[in-house]
Design goal:
mainly alpha
Length: about 150
């Protein structure tokens, strides 16, 4: 049996699930490589299976270095609006054998990862804007003193 190339597998995925743009899959593949390097450094060079949460963190870090303040815009263009979408992309790649998984892995590992606004917009806000947003969320409105 002949091995399927990344491009051939991607064509199969896109035909079966057109929700995400082609570039989203290439990005996830690169983000996985980036994450494995980070995890490998922490594990003294041992081969380490990357969990869904580790991959989400790697995706966040890699995206910020690649796209900076445009990250959320790029992801939206690709059809990626939250962490669950990354889980769907990963498991589409698993189904075509572009990626491997363990018995413990599931698409649910990507749910509740992080809020895209917090992860991709806030790092680029001016400090004064961050402080005003923090104050607005921290102090509930005071009741009026009508008697």
């Amino acid at each position: 049996m002949q091995e399927v190339t990344f491009e051939e597998a991607l064509e199969q995925i896109l035909a079966a699930d057109p929700r995400y743009q082609r570039d989203a899959y290439g990005f996830v593949r690169e983000a996985l490589d980036f994450t494995q390097k980070i995890v490998g450094k922490e594990g003294a060079g041992k081969i380490h299976h990357v969990t869904g949460q580790e991959l989400l963190d790697g995706i966040r870090q890699f995206a910020l270095t690649q796209f900076g303040p445009m990250t959320a815009t790029v992801f939206a263009e690709w059809g990626v609006n939250d962490c669950r979408d990354f889980g769907n992309i990963v498991f589409n790649m698993v189904e075509t054998r572009l990626l491997a998984k363990t018995d413990k892995d599931s698409a649910g590992d990507f749910e509740g990862g992080y809020n895209f606004d917090d992860a991709f917009r806030k790092p680029f806000l001016p400090t004064s804007k961050l402080l005003s947003e923090t104050r607005a969320h921290a102090s509930p409105p005071k009741p009026s003193a009508k008697g």
